[in-house]
Design brief:
The structure holds three protein chains of three kinds. Chain A is an alpha+beta fold. Chain A folds into two domains: 3-157 and 312-381, D-Maltodextrin-Binding Protein, domain 2; 159-310 and 401-433, Periplasmic binding protein-like II (D-Maltodextrin-Binding Protein, domain 2). Chain A has helices spanning 3-12, 15-34, 55-72, 83-96, 121-130, 136-142, 164-169, 179-191, 206-216, 234-247, 261-267, 279-287, 289-294, 326-336, 339-348, 365-368, 378-381, 393-400, 403-412, 418-433; strands spanning 45-50, 76-81, 102-104, 143-144, 147-148, 151-156, 159-163, 273-276, 295-298, 313-319, 353-354. Chain A has a six-stranded mixed sheet with strand order 2-1-3-10-6-11, with helices on both faces. In chain A, strands 8-7-9 form a three-stranded antiparallel sheet. A two-stranded antiparallel sheet of chain A has the order 4-5. In chain A, helix 3 (55-72) links the parallel strand 1 and strand 2. Chain C folds into two domains: 1-44, no CATH class; 81-296, MetI-like fold, CATH 1.10.3720. Chain C has a two-stranded antiparallel ribbon with strand order 1-2. The chains are: A alpha+beta, B mainly alpha, C mainly alpha. At the B-C interface, helix 1, helix 4, helix 6, helix 7 and helix 8 of B face helix 1, helix 2, helix 5, helix 6 and helix 7 of C. Chain C: It comes from Methylobacterium platani.
């Protein structure tokens, strides 16, 4: 939004980034020489991306874009839109065949119109071979019916943010790793008047991520691998009861929370435990140093299955088939994920972005600050948006309609009883999956 | 082109007698040319979309690809969809409460403004401000006022010692409904008040004087003079108010986006969520089309109210 | 027309004939106090908006150290940021251009339509008048989905022209209705004389009717501008790029930094976006009231 904020952050955090900018250009020129996707003569690109959460991430991205332009001569215009607006805009562009050449969006949006997405298997193979292979979740987001239609550029980890002092006071020295311990912690924190709170409103990022964790970690899923609806199960009931018990320990108001509410409350010192990306910590390091020192991040507790069942944001990038410069698009995707670019970008994102390729697990950002560590595991601990089911437009519609979030919210707030809330969700799922 | 033709002296027309001259002089054709711009816009961007909306609601069109005819399938799904019926219920409750309150307060305010007052013009301008300011922008102010942590209302009540916790304005279903209804009333009262004030000013003072001399009480004055004379304008202004409250979108979208748990979802916001955000154009159009019967009903009532007086058509 | 304006100004004082008999304390309780309460409620959100717009960030969320009703060391940071570091001036410009263009187009169409219905009285004029009145009752929230598909089919998606063409559907019905009321108050004799003198309908409209209907045109114009400025759902659905947005849509979507809301900038944006209309109205409020009076008079 404003150069003002960016400059502030730059002064503090990204001196490193500036120093490497010169090096970036040298690399870019060399890269352009060897690049196998030669941009079309006179090509120019329009790119639509989600609106940044961490200003320095955006800065690094723009540096990368500049380097690409200088090395290849392809100008790239970048516009950004909020999370909620990306998907409809991308759909409209696919529909009308006019608009941006590339969209960098959320979750499974390319699956809404696979036939309008340029196949990018060659880019995916190139990057996969060079950087230790794609993580399973990344592959799930990039491929539809065996074809790569998007490059999963990054993930975003959302984990538990908590105040260390409040946890200790509640009798915990270490962050609990199972459901029971976690519930006990929240209860104790409520008693101490240092309550927890997770968004139960229509918060695209925060609500979806913790609610799906709650559902999946109880081995309950909306649909199975064949898109059969299996939400009406005893496991779901257990998940609902568990979340209800958690909800009773929350600060009031969580049912109206959007993605910003918990950040604001946490930074104001009214909230002591919540689920969020690293943006709270990043803001605290700038504005509230005492809170930054007293906070840490915890992994989502693992359920009976013993495997992590988290739900993290994915950021795939696609190019439309209508673009006049398919090679320039591919070149840009490949360029962005090259180590020389990607590593410094990851660092500048301060842990907000997480890598889709194995090789980047060693990026110094994950070890530079021990509080960053958990965010580096996001892409390997997450399931794809469908849970068990393949990524599809129906899965995207389930997320956009907040079917699962509303099921939990309506039971927790007492609007519907257990059975009714499950049945409502089942009904919504049937509506969305009807032509499956 | 029509303009040039019309600009010629009409007197010259009968002598030529060609088809063209009939076109520009005959009463019917003249009316046609004059109506053309308005009619073209209204037909192209109002009547056609209205029909197309009904058609879309009978298809499974999604954003990104065309659909095929599926009959009333969308409506069948809506028929036993809890969330849809909840939104219908919300819409009716919202419209009902807000309209009654807006009418009551609006009329009261109009009567107050019609009295002898200092700074009358200034007060009138102030009253109009909520109506003038774009709804979304004032809705944002309300959103901030009703914030769950930093609400100024919660703060004041706590500091007055009346409360020991923050009010969960937009997180509790009942409170959230009250809040959005309040914001709607706040936004709607000025228009109603100023319009009714305009109506009040057409009532001749001599009527009141005569009645008062005959011993009528202020209430009788109001009941038997003011109210009957105001009825037509009340009918018009309330039809507008009911209609626009019923189809409200922006206030809800800016304040709650339908939350908590869909308890403030109106039909319009649900239609946007399903149609645009989830990409299910057919279903979104079906929800929008489902509003039409209610609107026709409201218009019917207003028509009935206007029967007494031929409104702007005589 | 001038007569209407003056009546509007003078009649209310006498409207409750015996009002002067009320004692002062009684008036305070029955008139001034309720009026004061209503005005405070109506104005408070703007006070709050303005206060937030000039409050430094740290005072916003620290309600214990600072009294939230007031501001210590106010800052123009938010407003300066808004005007110089965002696209805000561009959004204001867009909103203004779209509103003015749509208003001019609607007034043109409405004047012709209203005149035709009231004075040319072609066959079916009454029915058409009623149909236009009904058109006002078709709200945007029913039409935005089919219109979105139509706009896309015409290649107008993400273009300000889409709004310039669509907004008149909201404006024409009301303007026509209002102007019909005005035209009716103009004596027939004027027109008859002109017709006998050989003037065409067009000449009569431009030279005789329009000058007399200027107050009506102003009210219809102001009303149309307000509606355009206020419109949200079409702008939200039909526009996409940041540089094409109108103020209401931009303020809602552009001042949110991922999950951090910039309340100061948001409120500054809301305030600055409201000011042009408030200023416009403060000049024309009397016009507006008298126009309404004219329109509701038979």
């Amino acid at each position: 939004m404003s150069a003002f904020d960016r400059r502030q952050i730059l002064k503090g955090g990204a001196a490193l980034g500036l120093a490497s900018a010169a090096g970036l250009e040298g690399f870019a020129r060399a890269w352009a020489q060897e690049n196998q996707w030669k941009p079309e003569a006179g090509a120019s690109l329009k790119l639509l991306r989600w609106k940044r959460f961490i200003p320095s991430e955006d800065e690094a991205f723009m540096r990368l874009v500049d380097a690409f332009t200088k090395a290849t001569g392809v100008p790239v215009t970048v516009t950004s839109e909020s999370f909620d607006d990306i998907q409809p805009k991308a759909s409209v562009a696919a529909n009308t065949g006019q608009g941006p050449d590339m969209v960098w969006g959320l979750y499974s949006f390319p699956a809404l119109f696979p036939s309008k997405c340029m196949e990018v298997g060659d880019v995916a193979d190139y990057l996969g071979k060079k950087y230790g292979g794609w993580l399973p979740a990344a592959e799930a987001y990039g491929k539809v019916k065996g074809k790569w239609i998007a490059i999963p550029m990054a993930f975003n980890g959302g984990y538990i943010n908590y105040r260390i002092s409040a946890m200790n006071k509640a009798g915990f020295q270490k962050f609990p790793e199972d459901h029971a311990g976690f519930l006990e912690l929240c209860r104790a924190m409520k008693k101490n008047n240092t309550p927890a709170g997770f968004a139960l409103g229509h918060a695209t990022g925060d609500a979806n991520s913790w609610i799906h964790w709650a559902l999946w970690s109880h081995d309950a899923y909306l649909v199975d691998a064949n898109e059969k609806i299996i939400i009406n199960s005893p496991e779901t009931a257990k998940a609902l009861e568990y979340v209800k018990a958690l909800y009773d320990t929350f600060v009031p108001g969580t049912a109206s929370w959007n993605d910003s509410s918990n950040n604001k409350a946490f930074l104001a010192g009214d909230l002591y435990l919540t689920g969020n990306g690293i943006s709270v910590y990043a803001a605290a390091k700038n504005e509230k140093k005492d809170i930054a020192a007293d906070m840490d991040h915890g992994l989502w507790p693992v359920g009976k299955s013993g495997k992590p069942t988290e739900f993290q944001l994915a950021f795939p990038i696609l190019a439309y088939t209508y673009t006049k410069a398919p090679n320039a698009c591919k070149a840009f995707m490949a360029f962005a994920l090259e180590a020389q670019n990607y590593n410094s970008w990851l660092e500048a994102s301060q842990g907000y972005l997480c890598h889709p390729l194995q090789a980047y697990a060693n990026n110094p950002i994950w070890t530079a600050d021990p509080k960053n560590k958990v965010f580096g595991e996001a892409s390997s601990r997450t399931l794809a948006a469908g849970g068990l089911a393949p990524v599809s437009e129906k899965v995207a519609a389930v997320l956009a309609d907040f079917v699962v979030v509303d099921m939990f919210a309506s039971y927790c707030t007492g609007r519907e009883d257990l059975k009714t809330s499950i049945r409502t969700a089942e009904r919504q799922a049937q509506r969305i999956f009807r032509s499956a | 082109m029509a303009d040039i033709a019309l600009a010629r002296p009409a007197a010259a027309a009968p002598t030529t007698g060609s088809a063209w001259s009939r076109l520009r002089t005959s009463r019917g054709w003249l009316g046609f040319w004059f109506m053309l711009p308005a009619a073209a816009i209204l037909l192209l961007f109002l009547a056609y979309p209205l029909a197309k909306g009904v058609w879309l609601s009978l298809t499974d069109t999604r954003i990104g690809r065309g659909g095929s005819f599926v009959g009333i399938e969308n409506y069948e799904w809506l028929w036993d969809d809890n969330v849809f019926w909840l939104s219908v219920f919300n819409t009716l409750v919202y419209t009902g409460f807000a309209s009654v309150a807006k009418f009551g307060i609006g009329l009261y305010l109009a009567l107050l403004l019609n009295k002898r007052l200092p700074f009358k013009a200034l007060i009138r301008s102030i009253v109009l401000i909520p109506f003038v300011v774009p709804t979304v922008l004032s809705a944002l102010a309300f959103w901030w006022i009703f914030d769950s942590q930093f609400s100024i209302i919660s703060w004041s009540l706590r500091h007055l010692g009346l409360l020991d916790h923050n009010i969960d304005f937009l997180g509790d279903p009942t409170m959230a409904r009250i809040c959005v209804t309040f914001a709607n009333i706040w936004r709607g009262v000025p228009f109603i008040a100023i319009t009714l004030l305009a109506g009040l000013q057409t009532v001749s003072p001599s009527l009141y004087e005569a009645a008062t001399i005959d011993g009528a009480t202020p209430w009788q004055n109001f009941r038997h003079i003011t109210l009957p004379l105001l009825t037509p304008i009340i009918a018009v202004v309330m039809t507008f108010s009911v209609l626009f409250t019923f189809t409200d979108f922006q206030l809800i979208w800016a304040m709650t986006r339908g939350g908590p748990v869909n308890t403030t979802h109106l039909m319009a916001t649900l239609s946007y969520q399903r149609g645009i955000l989830s990409g299910n154009l057919g279903e979104g159009a079906a929800i929008a089309t489902a509003m039409v019967p209610f609107l026709i009903f409201a218009i019917g009532i207003s028509w009935f109210g206007l029967q007494n007086r031929k409104w702007q058509t005589g | 027309m001038a007569a209407t304006t003056t009546t509007a100004d003078t009649t209310p004082d006498n409207s409750e004939g015996m009002a002067y008999l009320d004692t002062l304390p009684r008036r305070v309780v029955t008139v001034y106090l309720p009026l004061f309460v209503i005005l405070v409620v109506l104005l408070f959100p703007f006070y709050w908006m303005a206060l937030t717009a000039i409050k430094p960030d740290e005072q916003l969320i620290d309600m214990e150290t600072y009294n939230p009703f007031w501001v210590v060391s106010p800052t123009l940071k938010h407003i300066a940021k808004l005007l110089f570091q965002t696209n805000y001036p561009l959004w204001l410009w867009n909103t203004m251009m779209i509103s003015v263009a749509a208003t001019v187009l609607s007034l043109f169409a409405s004047v012709l339509a209203a005149y035709a219905i009231v004075r040319i009285r072609y066959r079916g004029a009454v029915a058409v008048g009623a149909a236009i009145f009904l058109a006002y009752l078709v709200p945007p929230s029913i039409l935005f989905i089919p219109l979105a598909t139509i706009i896309q089919a015409y290649g107008l998606y993400d273009s300000p022209f889409a709004l310039v063409l669509v907004y008149p559907t909201i404006l024409i019905p009301f303007s026509t209705w209002l102007l019909m009321g005005y035209f009716k108050t103009i004596p027939y004799e004027l027109e008859e004389c002109a017709l006998i003198d050989g003037a065409s309908r067009w000449q009569i409209l431009v030279k005789i009717i329009l000058p007399l209907a200027v107050p009506g045109l102003i009210s219809a114009g102001i009303f149309s501008l307000t509606l355009c400025w206020n419109e949200f759902i079409y702008a939200l659905t039909f526009l996409s790029s940041t540089q094409n947005k109108t103020v209401p849509v931009a303020v809602v979507s552009e001042f949110v930094d991922g999950d951090i809301y910039r309340w100061g900038s948001l409120m500054a944006g809301a305030l600055v976006g409201s000011l042009p209309l408030v200023i416009l109205y403060s000049f024309f409020v009397e016009h507006y009231v008298s126009a309404m009076t004219g329109a509701v008079k038979e």
